[in-house]
């Protein structure tokens, strides 16, 4: 199988690249990774508020995508909605695993205090704390509304793409997003947090265009 030149691969759509990858062309899958890894990573980080965990989860998403490449048919031009659907499943599995792990640790004696190396990671910790504040606010919404808000406002998916990711109708995405934004304004006003710092979770790509 003759590898395609990089400039030719760059011109292919995600669906075309996916077919090439399914045929065994790893370089085609690499282009899909380059296009969407940052978006998948950001999606995972917003779900877990931990940089290192987000990196691990992103790797798991693309590993799963590579393994399933021959079994999946992209419904639309972009692979991102499907990849974010995989990411949601990976995050849910991670949460279940962490709950089991935490329950096991609770049965053990407390560990000795470890040296504090926070100076080396101050920037990342600040980002994680800020993200946790946002997640605390968004976490008070129903899970279905959280998913739509994350996909449309944070990941920049269109209503149609979010509908593909979640397996629901476009009208359902619109109604959930409207309900989520209204409720989020109420919650932000009741916690003392201004909406300015949470503005990205209230704005969608389709509204900006």
Task: Set out the fold topology.
Layout: H1 6-11, H2 14-22, H3 26-48, H4 51-67, H5 80-105, H6 122-138, H7 143-154, H8 159-166, H9 170-191, H10 205-208
Q: Please state roughly what percent of the residues sit in beta strands, choosing from under 5%, 5-15%, 15-25%, 25-35%, 35-45% or over 45%.
A: under 5%
Number of helices: 10
Mean pLDDT: 78
Work out the number of β strands. 0
Order of helices and strands: HHHHHHHHHH
Structural class: mainly alpha
Gross morphology:
globular
Give the distance, in angstroms, between the N- and C-terminal Cα atoms: 42 Å
- Rg over CA atoms, rounded to whole Å, is 19 Å
Q: Which runs of at least 5 residues are low in confidence (pLDDT < 50)? A: 191-201
Biggest sheet, open or closed, and with what strands and sense? none
What is the helical fraction, as a range of percent?
Answer: 55-70%
Explain how this protein is built.
With 209 residues, this protein is an all-alpha fold. 69% of the residues lie in helices and 0% in strands. Helix 4 (51-67) packs across helix 5 and helix 5 crosses helix 8.
